[in-house]
Amino acid sequence: MGIRPVTHFLEDNLIEKIISEARDLLCNLGITLHNKGVLEVLSGYGAAVDQDKYHVRFTNDIIDKALGSTPSSFKLFDVLGQETHDFSGNNSHFTPGSAAINILDNQTNEIRKPTTADFINYSKLMSGLTNIASTSTAFIPADVTEKISDSFRLYLSLLYCEKPVVTGAFTIEGFETIKDLQLAVRGTKEELAAKPLTILSCCPTSPLKFSDVTSQNVVDCARFGIPVEFISMPLSGFMAPVTLVGSIIQHTAETISGIIISQLTNPGTPILYGGSPAIFDMRYETTPMGAVETMMIDCAYNEIGKFLGFPTQAYISLSDAKRLDAQAGLESSMGATLAVLSGINNISGPGMLDFESCQSLQKLVVDNEICGMTMRIAQGIEPKEDFPSIPLFQELLKEKHLLISKHTRKYIREEHYFPGKVINRANLSRWKEEGSLSLTEQANQEIERLLNDYQPSRLPEDIKTELTRRMEVEARLNGMDKLPE
Question: Which pTM was predicted?
Fold first, then answer.
C-alpha cells in the first residue's frame, strides 16, 4: 500500500525542549492579561496574579490540567447540519484568509475598499469552489459601520453560502450577535455545540499578552462550545527572537496560555492550535507571509501542536504580491504544498495578497486549483489493480494505447486531478484558437461562470428571515437605519 507523504522540520527531542522552554516562560515570566474576570478565575486555580499590573504567572499543574482536557479533534458542519470537516490526524482542509481591509477589483485590477456587494459576490463564488471546504469572513465591507462589521460579515456568509465559516469578533459586544446568528441557524445552544458551524479566530498580542477583547472572546466561545483557533503572531527579529526556534518558543507559550483560558472556562472546548507568525523584513519593515522562513515556522509549530495531541491551523498558502502574478502563484503553491505535507488541519490563506490585507476573487479561483492539486498529493501513491502488470502491458502492446481500456476508465478520475479552465493545459495552437487568454483573463471568466451558476443557499427561508431580522436590530442599535442593499 502507498503512504500519505508527510514532511517534518523538528525532531522529537527539539519539540520537547521547545515545550519545556515555553512552560518556563509561562511559569516564571508569565503573561500580561487585560481582563480582570479571567485573572480572578486563574487566581482561583492557583496562578500568581497581580490585578493591578494585569499580570499572571501560571503553574505546571494549571498547564497540565488545561492540556489534558483539550480535545484531540473535532468536526465542523455546514448550515444544513451536514459534516464537512474532520480535524483529526493529518486531514487537511482549506479556508480563505480572513479580515482583509481591501479587495483586488477583478475588473479594474486595482486594490480598493470592499463593499457589501463585493462580499455577496465572494460568498456566491465560495459556494462553487469545491476544493476550499469552508468560507471565511474574508474582508471587511466599508459601507457598514465598523461597530457591526464583524457580525455583518458572518450574516452575509450564512445567508449566501452553505459552508461553515471561519470568523472573528472585534469587540466583546460583537460576540453576542455572532453567537445569536449561529443560534438562529442551529436552534439551541446544545445543537450548536453538537454541530459547530463556525471557528472563531482569537489572537494573542505578541509578546506574551492577551487583550480584554480577545480573552473575553475565548471565554465566551468556551461557554457555548464554539471552536476557537488561536492565532499567535510572533514577528521574528521584531516582536520575537530572530531565530526560528526562538519564535516558535514564543508561539508555543502564547498559544498554551490561550488554551488555558479556554479549558479552565469549559474543559473539552474544541480548539485549533494555530497562528499567523512571520519573519520581519527589516529592509522594507514588512511581515512577509510568503517568506519561506514564515512557512517553516508554520509547519514547525504544527508539529508542536500535533505532539501535544491537538488539531492545527496556520496562515499559509498566501502571498505578499499585489496582483495575480508569478509571485502570487509561487508563494501560494509552495505554502499550500508544505501545509498539506505537514498535515496542517485547517489551512488559511487562499485568495489573500499584500501581507494579509487584501482579498482577490481572481486569486481565489486559482488557489482553488492549487488546493485541489495539493490534496491529490496528500492521497499519495498506491497500487490499483497494477499487479500482476503483464495483462495491462499486453493490452497496451496489442491496442497501441490504453485510452479506453477498462483499467483507464475505472481509475482515471481517482488517479488524475483535472483542474478547471483557469489552469491552461491546451497546446499552443488550441490556446490561440481559444483566444490566447492570460491567467487573469481566464480567472475572470471562471468568476463570471461561477457567479452565473450560483444556486441560493438551501437554508430554510424562515431562518434566512430571522437572520436578517437579528442583523437589522443590531444595525439600528449602532446607528444604521437600514442594511446596505
Answer: 0.97
